[in-house]
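User: Teach me something about this protein's shape.
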Amino acid sequence: MAKGFVCIQVERCKGCGFCVEFCPTRVLALSSAFNSKGYHPPHVVNGEKCSGCDLCGIYCPDFAIFGWKARASEGAAHAG
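Assistant: First, the predicted structure itself:
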């Protein structure tokens, strides 16, 4: 079960890839799809590995992504 979660604001993303590059557990990858600005935003490929460290959010220059650690009650709600 994931220890954390990632929230991606697709339309804010400019496809720099910093979030993918700096994710220590390789949770993210750049999508082959485009947002409305023509950029490839990230998407979650290994959500179960997310630690909630928020390095993705720390390195994002556009505030388009953030992570957070799960509480015990969140794990059950997001498990399905």
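Now, about its shape. The mean pLDDT is 91. The longest strand covers residues 4-8. If you'd like, I can walk through any region in more detail.
User: That's plenty for now, thanks!
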